[in-house]
């Protein structure tokens, strides 16, 4: 089977060509690296050519190139030698650590260090001359030094790659956080827009349908009055919401967020729109004031429930009940459930989604659906809004 060699990289070709030209120039000038060797200077061309060919594999096959380069360097010691051959071997040693496998990168410096020490001890024991240490130093320069340099370069590259990866991961996490923040803000704005305007638009749609379908001047006049009132209030709330969105101060909450003190006015407005509504506020007037997010959520849930009753409920009584518990506020709204006899406005289901989202944001529970009662079938909306964390209450 023929040996399949990868295509050399451009920088490897350039290094191999430059090294070969320098080695040939040194050989032509008769500048040999060694004297008194069994083989003459012509034989030095063989290791030179082999090492130049192995330079082509320094990046793609570093470990194979190092093994073959070692044999070529040993062979070069029996010839007159060439300085370019020694330099090419050091470069191949360096490349084997930088481009080789992690295991090879750990093993090669240790092996070259052991060989350096062994060569030094062996020459000292053989020659019995301190100058033999110089041969050990030369061995270390040729073998251990490029390997150690390769370790430093490889560690630096790996640290740089790890830092780049961490930066990319940080940027990715930041982008994910930004997308989530934008999505959460868009959902919050959608809830506010729906809750602030849907009630008025529903009343307008229902009363305009009644005015068009009934040939009664008084009914049409009353319907137009309700339409005008809801149009003006809806336009005012829309302008306020647009002002909030254009505000650059970062305060994205309404300047005057509705509270439960405004429930009476909300119920009165629902009666004006044609609903038969009763409000049963069982909260303790002398009790502690509820947190603003709880009051806002409760107000919006009641508002949206009345809007849904206006659009979908059958004729009958709509009840709104608020109950203060030790650590929670409960909101319950019931309306007659069945086929409405009068005109109705279409629904999208966004109201129930918004109420559930408001409740979930406070860590509460939300339920909605038809129920059977002694007075008939009703549609019930029930929400429990925590006033304070349960763990704090447990500590008291």
Automatic annotation (TrEMBL):
<dbReference type="InterPro" id="IPR036890">
    <property type="entry name" value="HATPase_C_sf"/>
</dbReference>
<feature type="domain" description="Signal transduction histidine kinase subgroup 3 dimerisation and phosphoacceptor">
    <location>
        <begin position="185"/>
        <end position="248"/>
    </location>
</feature>
<dbReference type="GO" id="GO:0016020">
    <property type="term" value="C:membrane"/>
</dbReference>
<dbReference type="GO" id="GO:0005524">
    <property type="term" value="F:ATP binding"/>
</dbReference>
<feature type="transmembrane region" description="Helical">
    <location>
        <begin position="43"/>
        <end position="60"/>
    </location>
</feature>
<feature type="transmembrane region" description="Helical">
    <location>
        <begin position="108"/>
        <end position="127"/>
    </location>
</feature>
<protein>
    <recommendedName>
        <fullName>histidine kinase</fullName>
        <ecNumber>2.7.13.3</ecNumber>
    </recommendedName>
</protein>
<dbReference type="InterPro" id="IPR003594">
    <property type="entry name" value="HATPase_dom"/>
</dbReference>
<keyword id="KW-0547">Nucleotide-binding</keyword>
<keyword id="KW-0812">Transmembrane</keyword>
<keyword id="KW-0902">Two-component regulatory system</keyword>
<feature type="transmembrane region" description="Helical">
    <location>
        <begin position="80"/>
        <end position="101"/>
    </location>
</feature>
<dbReference type="InterPro" id="IPR050482">
    <property type="entry name" value="Sensor_HK_TwoCompSys"/>
</dbReference>
<keyword id="KW-0472">Membrane</keyword>
<keyword id="KW-0597">Phosphoprotein</keyword>
<keyword id="KW-0808">Transferase</keyword>
<dbReference type="GO" id="GO:0046983">
    <property type="term" value="F:protein dimerization activity"/>
</dbReference>
<feature type="domain" description="Histidine kinase/HSP90-like ATPase">
    <location>
        <begin position="296"/>
        <end position="387"/>
    </location>
</feature>
<keyword id="KW-0418">Kinase</keyword>
<dbReference type="Pfam" id="PF02518">
    <property type="entry name" value="HATPase_c"/>
</dbReference>
<keyword id="KW-0067">ATP-binding</keyword>
<dbReference type="Pfam" id="PF07730">
    <property type="entry name" value="HisKA_3"/>
</dbReference>
<dbReference type="InterPro" id="IPR011712">
    <property type="entry name" value="Sig_transdc_His_kin_sub3_dim/P"/>
</dbReference>
<feature type="transmembrane region" description="Helical">
    <location>
        <begin position="13"/>
        <end position="31"/>
    </location>
</feature>
<dbReference type="GO" id="GO:0000155">
    <property type="term" value="F:phosphorelay sensor kinase activity"/>
</dbReference>
<keyword id="KW-1133">Transmembrane helix</keyword>
<feature type="transmembrane region" description="Helical">
    <location>
        <begin position="133"/>
        <end position="153"/>
    </location>
</feature>
């Amino acid at each position: 089977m023929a040996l399949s060699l990868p295509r050399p990289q451009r920088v490897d070709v350039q290094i191999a060509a430059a090294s070969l030209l320098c080695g040939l120039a040194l050989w032509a000038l008769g500048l040999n690296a060694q004297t008194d060797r069994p083989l003459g200077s012509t034989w030095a061309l063989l290791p030179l050519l082999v090492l130049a060919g192995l330079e082509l594999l320094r990046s793609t096959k570093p470990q194979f190139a190092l093994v073959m380069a070692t044999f070529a360097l040993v062979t070069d010691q029996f010839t007159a030698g060439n300085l370019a051959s020694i330099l090419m071997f050091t470069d191949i040693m360096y490349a084997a650590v930088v481009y080789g496998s992690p295991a090879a990168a750990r093993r090669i410096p240790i092996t070259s260090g052991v060989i350096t020490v062994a060569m030094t001890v062996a020459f000292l024991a053989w020659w019995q001359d301190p100058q033999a240490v110089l041969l050990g130093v030369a061995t270390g320069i040729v073998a251990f030094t490029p390997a150690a340099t390769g370790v430093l370069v490889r560690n630096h590259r790996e640290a740089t790659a790890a830092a780049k990866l961490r930066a990319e991961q940080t940027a990715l996490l930041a982008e994910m956080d930004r997308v989530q923040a934008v999505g959460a803000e868009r959902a919050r704005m959608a809830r506010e827009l729906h809750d602030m305007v849907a009630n008025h638009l529903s009343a307008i749609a229902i009363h305009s349908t009644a005015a068009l379908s009934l040939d009664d001047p008084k009914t049409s006049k009353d319907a137009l009055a309700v339409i005008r009132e809801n149009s003006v209030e809806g336009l005012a709330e829309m302008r306020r919401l647009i002002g909030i969105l254009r505000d650059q101060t970062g305060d994205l909450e309404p300047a005057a967020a509705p509270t439960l003190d405004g429930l009476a006015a909300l119920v009165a407005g629902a009666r004006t729109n044609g609903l038969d509504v009763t409000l049963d506020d069982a909260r303790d007037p002398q009790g502690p004031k509820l947190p603003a997010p709880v009051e806002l959520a409760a107000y919006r849930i009641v508002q949206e429930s009345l809007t849904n009753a206006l659009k979908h409920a059958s004729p009958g009584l709509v009840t709104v009940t608020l109950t203060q518990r030790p650590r929670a506020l409960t909101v319950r709204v019931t309306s007659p459930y069945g086929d409405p006899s009068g005109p109705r406005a279409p629904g999208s289901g966004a109201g129930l989604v918004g109420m559930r989202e408001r409740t979930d944001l406070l860590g509460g529970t939300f339920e909605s659906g038809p129920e059977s009662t002694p007075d008939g079938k009703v549609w019930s909306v029930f929400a429990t809004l925590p006033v304070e964390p349960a763990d704090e209450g447990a500590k008291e």
